[in-house]
Amino acid sequence: MTNSMLPLIINGIIASLAIIGTIINTILTNRHQAKLRSIDFKNKITSDDYRHVQKLFEDFLRYSFSVAASNVSKENVDQLVQSYSVLIPYIPAESQGIFDQFMTILRKTGTADYSGEKPAEFLKRAIVPVMNDALSQYKEQKNR
Predict the structure, then answer these.
(1) Which helix or strand (DSSP H or E) is residue 139 part of?
(2) I need a labelling partner for 133 at 20 to 30 A (CA). Which of 82, 125, 139, 141 fits?
(3) Do 30 and 64 touch, CB atoms closer than 8 A?
(4) Is residue 138 within a helix (H) or strand (E), and if so which, with residue range?
(5) Distances in Å between the alpha carbon of 10 and those of 3, 5, 15, 121?
(6) Is 6 part of any domain?
(7) Total structural domains in the chain?
(8) pTM for this structure?
(9) DSSP 32-89
(10) Which helix (H) or strand (E) holds 13?
(11) For position 135, what pLDDT does the model report?
(12) Which helix (H) or strand (E) holds 129?
């Protein structure tokens, strides 16, 4: 080999490394972007699920307060029962009795011999804290 060939060989090696480096950089960038998209997709699903469950709890509260405030119309009671039915899978098993107790209080409220706790007070004291705990547990479970 002559000295005149040495610069050509070095230029060829540098050009080859530049091409290979670009390819490796592109592959690594694409993998990173795919991971980011996957994480964003999982976060979107989690937040959409959380918002859905949160809306179910809010609907139950809205109809509960409406019925508890002596606005006992057939439509309100039907909406309350429907919102309760949809909410049951999201209520922790250990708290199910509190919701059953609330529904019993609502049924007895209209009777003349009922002198127990008012439904609105029971909602604030027992149901709302259970809902907050259930929502936070649901969110933690989905984030794992």
Answers:
(1) helix 128-143
(2) 82
(3) no
(4) helix 128-143
(5) 11, 9, 9, 84
(6) no
(7) 1
(8) 0.64
(9) HHHHHHHHHHHHHHHHHHHHHHHHHHHHHHHHHHHHHTT---HHHHHHHHHHHHHHGG
(10) helix 6-68
(11) 84
(12) helix 128-143
